[in-house]
Amino acid sequence: QLQLVDTGGGLVQAGGSLTLSCAASGRSFDSYVMGWFRQAPGKEREFVTAINWNGASKYDADFVKGRFFISRDNAKNMVYLQMNSLKPEDTAVYYCAAGGGNIVTPVWDYWGQGTQVTVSS
After folding, report:
1. What CA–CA distances, in Å, run from 115 to 72, 95, 105, 121?
2. pLDDT tens across 102-111, in order?
3. Distance CA 51, CA 113 (A)
4. Cα dihedral 4, 63, 45, 50 sign
């Protein structure tokens, strides 16, 4: 079982950058696919990006390619989301998630509490 804590959200101007962090506690962190999701006001939660257990494979939603980068440090039980060239439409609550299975269709078992990202125009 894992517990996930998301941090790093905040207010940033359009075009700026922000890095989110997800701290995991529990067993076998390095056996999980890790991912980020987001949910904007009035919208459903959507997938952003995922990374496999050793960081060798990544899978991105089309809207983040070239702007957002996921990484993990298994020694520290941490996952990061570096977000560049932020747009107002990136405003949302961002959630870290952990799951089993393959990187494209994992079963997401654990969720962080979310961290708010607000991008001003």
Report:
1. 18, 7, 24, 20
2. 888 899 999 9
3. 19
4. negative
- The pLDDT tens digits for 37-84 are 999 999 999 999 999 999 999 999 999 878 999 999 999 999 999 999
- Cβ atoms 7, 96 nearer than 8 A: no
d(CA 41, CA 97): 19
Residue 42 Cα distances to 80, 87, 91, 108, angstroms: 26, 18, 12, 22
**The two three-digit tokens of residue 75, written as one number:** 């020694």
- Cα separation, 49 vs 46, in Å, equals 10
Q: In which residue are the tokens 């996952």 written?
A: 79
Please name every residue paired with 63 in a beta bridge, in sequence order, or none if there are none. none
In whole angstroms, give the CA distance from residue 111 to residue 57: 21
For 95, the enclosing helix (H) or strand (E) is strand 92-100
**Phi, psi dihedral angles at 31 (to 5 degrees):** -95, -5
Place of tokens 């890790």: 34
By residue count, the chain amounts to 121
